[in-house]
From TrEMBL:
SUPFAM superfamilies: P-loop containing nucleoside triphosphate hydrolases. NCBIfam families: GET3_arsA_TRC40. This is Arsenite-transporting ATPase. Gene3D superfamilies: P-loop containing nucleotide triphosphate hydrolases (3.40.50.300). It comes from the Bacteria. Residues 8-289 form the AAA+ ATPase domain. Belongs to the arsA ATPase family.
């Protein structure tokens, strides 16, 4: 299912609980698509990275080539570093604010941003900006972008952030609009300097750019022809319940949920213990079918060895 689905999309998000196999499945599908001749970028936004481990090389915040296929296709990868992303985000905000605020408020700006670093949502906001950026540049430079996202609760929040942030910037812009009008009136009365007007226009431009970036991300996310979201899970009770909840939340946000990958299925023919586990898994999969019966499902067996390196990822992709 997943390979066919990815072949028909430009952006594929993979989400699910920690340790279920998101990074492995993301790399497997991305590699398969590169081998099919597409230019592919795999992005890991998960704070606990292992794209590097998987490819047995160091992968960081700058894009690196992971595999070259015969023909046109190749695979690049990048790991979004939340610390670095937050730091870069804050220093950009600091630079803008310092430029736009009166000089004597510089200390205030610094204090505010030092507090903001640890504020809830700051990492998410920074990562979201980076995701928006990577989706935008990625879809321009590649045929397919595969995003391996952080564990599920976090992911749905991340995906609803464009809405929240859009509303927030809209509010600020409306307030600016009002003060722009007041400002213009004041200026006619000779009460406002040209410098202030210029600064206001600049603040407006910054906010507008940001809002437009989030609006574009949301447009891609809710474009069912271009983008899809696939949930990876283990056939266990809690992961199944969380998957149902995540899929519903995403569908409510207007995101296409293209399918589910049930990873690490126990074998039926490798001893009593694993056979019993397999039977228990089958029960949990019935729940999954009851609630998300409309979604196609791939089942990937539990492999004897961790899928590490290109050859192992090619065999992993054979199950998708
Ligand atoms: N089908 C499989 N059989 C055996 N091991 C697997 C399978 N799929 C993944 N693994 C192993 O399970 C571990 C977790 O996989 P992976 O890192 O892809 O999960 P993840 O969802 O990205 O985890 P995290 O949330 O921590 O980023 C890894 O050691 C990986 O090699
Ligand atoms: Mg991972």
């Amino acid at each position: 299912m997943l390979l066919d689905l990815a072949a028909r999309r430009r952006v594929v998000f993979l989400g699910g609980k920690g340790g279920v196999g998101k990074t492995s499945i993301a790399s497997a599908v991305a590699l398969a698509q590169a081998r099919a001749g597409r230019r592919v970028l795999v992005v890991s936004t998960d704070p606990a990275h292992n794209l590097g481990h998987l490819w047995q090389r160091s992968v960081g915040d700058d894009v690196v080539r992971l595999a070259t296929a015969t023909g046109e296709g190749y695979l690049d990868g990048v790991e979004v570093d939340p610390e670095r992303t937050t730091a870069a985000h804050l220093s950009a905000v600091r630079a803008t604010l310092r430029r736009l605020m009166p000089e004597h408020l510089g200390g205030e700006v610094d204090r505010h941003l030092d507090l903001a670093r640890e504020a809830p949502g700051m990492h998410e906001a920074a990562i979201l900006e980076r995701v928006a950026d990577l989706v935008e540049t990625g879809t321009a430079d590649y045929d397919l972008v595969v995003l391996d996202t952080a564990p599920s609760g976090h992911t749905a929040r991340l995906l609803s952030l464009p809405e929240t942030m859009g509303a927030w910037t809209d509010g600020l812009l409306r307030r600016r609009d009002r003060s722009d009008r007041l400002g213009a009136a004041a200026q006619m009365l000779g009460g406002r300097g040209e410098a202030t007007a210029r600064r206001d226009a600049e603040i407006r431009a910054v906010l507008t750019r940001r809002r437009e970036r989030f609006a574009r991300l949301r447009e891609v996310l809710t474009d069912h022809e271009a983008c899809t979201f696939v949930v990876v899970l283990a056939a266990e009770r809690l992961p199944v319940l969380e998957t149902v909840e995540l899929a519903r939340r995403l569908e409510k946000l207007g995101v296409d949920v293209g399918g589910l990958v049930v990873n690490k299925r126990s074998p039926a023919d490798a001893g009593e213990l694993l056979a019993a586990r397999r039977a228990a898994e089958a029960q949990h999969l019935l729940t999954l079918r009851d609630d998300l019966g409309h979604l196609p499902v791939d089942e990937v067996p539990l492999l004897a060895a961790e899928p590490v390196g290109e050859a192992a990822l090619v065999s992993l992709a054979a199950h998708l």
